[in-house]
Model the fold of this input.
Amino acid sequence: EISLGLVGSEMCIRDRASILMVPLSVSGQLTLDECQRLAQQNYPLLRKYELIRQTTSYSVKNINKGYLPQFAFNGQATYQSDVATLPDALSDMLESSGYDYKGLNKDQYKIGLDLNQVIWDGGNLEAQKKVTTLKGVAQMAQTDVDMYAIRDRVNNLFFGILLIEDKIELNEELQTLLSSNSRKLESMLANGTAMKADVDVVKAEYLEARQQMTELLSMKESYQKMLSIFIGKEINAASSLQKPGAEMPASYENLRPELSLFDTQFLQTNAELKLLNAGLKPKLSLFAQGYYGYPGYDMFNDMFNHDWTLNGTVGVRLSWNISKLYTYKHDKRKIALSARQIETNRDVFLFNNSLLSTQDEISIRQYKKMMAEDEEIIHLRTSVRQAAEVKLEHGVIDVNNLLQEITRENQARIERSSHEIEMLKSIHELKNTI
Done:
């Protein structure tokens, strides 16, 4: 039997009527490649690509804003314990000369605007954009990996349906054979050469075969509904699945999306290292500061006049945050360790992938060897069954012996069908593995 392994959160959506209402239907033959393509287009995770693109675009645009002039409004009100004053002799002289000397107030107020324009930031903004872009690419690659996982689910459903269809066909042949022997026994009963119990035994086997047919048809309908959900199109009674070819992979080069994910993660660690290095470089910028308040820059005037004034400064600023050197060595080692983890994950993936490929190849050879003997087994089982039918007509054996041979022949045919489907499934699992 082919194991489906479809128990998971995705299959819980069967309880939702909105998901089960598949608007489109498909008729004719469906190939495995077509089912895979439709499943990729219909899977809800597909919407994540556009979300990642938009998020990355907004993040990069925000980083680009760092090249624009940066404005900052500020305001403050303070009360000081002491302020600058003139010497007593000078203040007495000014007062005696008729000047209204008040001195600076201890309460001071400012409402200002600061402007900063980056001239050179050591490549920090460019490094940020690179890291953000590669982070988005890595998220895309991870989504590719997640999307690729549905191929196995579609394969399990597709080959499961093929196996059930073969079993349905074999069950029809079994019913025909049992019905034919039942008619012969009824004729023999009428001629007095068979007992009614013999007829009843064959009829019971025939009814059991019909029960199995009901079960198989129900299983096929269930599998078809699940596959319909995956591909977004209803598989109706007029549609059928085309059995894929048994061609082995043309190339064994590993093209799994996980390898692209690892490559992107490596590039991301390199970009993070460049960002770390850019943070150590000095930054050059133009600045302008202005405020309206008291006191202004002319403090001597403000000792005589307590009016608010406009004040401003423009200049060039060079800043260098050397405190980042404290953690630079450890930060660099952390990035190197991340790169080593990625390398380890890549090696583990390739190792496990190689094991799976080997298992798939062994399974393919096994089923091919078994298939080479299936036809001979069926031929022999058919000959034995036909001989048993003749012996029953001549009273040499009883009905139970004939039913045993019929069951063995039917089982041999089922085994042949199972081996073929399992062989095809293993071939396409190998293709997915690499």
Observations:
- Confidence is low (pLDDT under 50) at residues 1-23.
- The beta strands are 24-30, 70-79, 107-120, 233-241, 283-294, 309-319.
- The radius of gyration is 41 Å.
